TrEMBL record:
It comes from Mucilaginibacter mali. This is Patatin-like phospholipase family protein. One of its GO terms (molecular function) is hydrolase activity. Gene3D superfamilies: Cytosolic phospholipase A2 catalytic domain. GO terms for biological process: lipid catabolic process. A motif (GXSXG) lies at residues 46-50. The keyword rRNA-binding does not apply.
Length: 282
């Protein structure tokens, strides 16, 4: 895509956010870097942790403000499994926090159009939510099977969208001029497994990455920090570190990706034109 002329500058920029537990906080850093350079999004899609990020960013929260909420309200800790009860636990305990910060609870009232991926457990198919109760859609997308009870919406049971699509780029295709993907599931080479939880997390990442390239190919730009492999999906105390990794990777993409450099240059040019006006106006 040539972004160096006014005719070809992308007007609608879509953002796809992968799942990945607390690693999804890296999305906030990526978004902060992009928005710091004037990039705004017309449509955001997300799965699991990416669905949470999509909802809050689309509701108008700045990435740094949402990071502060994560620290103070411990939203991701409420999504952490409590296994001591010996059975499935309800993820609905996190619902009040979403309602507290997004009280209108409506897709339609968000500042940016979003799509949230979840899996219909009964029918065994991927579903994209674009309307209805926002909080239930977000929680359905985060509902890890075997740990949390499925979220029931209109009589259907829903679980984590990452089971069938952990990088939901498809809803953006045909609706955006430029698609940016933020993935937090880079798979590093390792030589040892330190714990049972580490093994489960590693196995999940291998499964996710098996289909990731297909989704990446639909993006014009993919931003995927390589420093996240050492963080587990429930390492909630590492949110600040993960955010900064995403931020640095976002800055690196802006400096090193020709498409992004063209977009940013075009945005700067349009701001200059609006500020100075046309010679004909003088």
């Amino acid at each position: 895509m040539d972004v160096n002329t006014d005719q070809q500058k992308p007007k609608k920029i879509g953002l796809a956010l992968s799942g990945g537990g607390i690693r999804g906080v890296s999305h906030l850093g990526v978004i902060q870097a992009l928005t710091d350079h004037g990039i705004q999004f017309s449509h955001i899609s997300g799965t699991s942790a990416g669905a949470i990020g999509a909802a809050f960013i689309a509701a108008g929260y700045a990435p740094q403000d949402f990071l502060q909420m994560i620290r103070e309200a411990r939203l991701f800790k409420l999504l952490r499994p409590a296994m001591s009860g010996g059975g499935l636990v309800s993820i609905l305990k996190a619902r009040f926090l979403i309602n507290q910060y997004i009280p209108h609870n409506s897709f339609e009232k968000l500042n940016t159009r979003i799509t949230i991926a979840a899996v219909d457990l009964g029918e065994g198919k991927l579903v994209y939510f674009t309307d209805g109760e926002l909080d239930l859609a977000v929680l359905a997308s985060c509902c890890l099977p075997g740990i949390f009870k499925p979220i029931v919406i209109n009589g259907h049971m829903y679980i984590d969208g990452g089971i069938l699509n952990n990088f939901p780029v498809e809803p953006l295709v045909g609706n955006c001029d430029l698609i940016i993907g933020s993935s937090c599931n880079h798979l590093p080479v390792i030589t040892e497994i330190k714990s049972f939880g580490n093994m489960i997390d590693r196995a999940a990442m291998i499964a996710i990455n098996a289909s990731l390239n297909t989704h990446k190919s639909l993006c014009d730009i993919v931003i995927e920090p390589h420093g996240l492999g050492g963080y587990g999906v429930f390492d909630t105390d590492c949110a600040e570190e993960i955010y900064m990794i995403g931020y640095e990777e976002g800055l690196k993409a802006i400096k090193g990706n020709e498409i992004l450099k063209g977009v940013v240059a075009g945005l700067k040019g349009s701001r200059k034109v609006r500020k100075t006006g046309s010679p004909k106006d003088k």
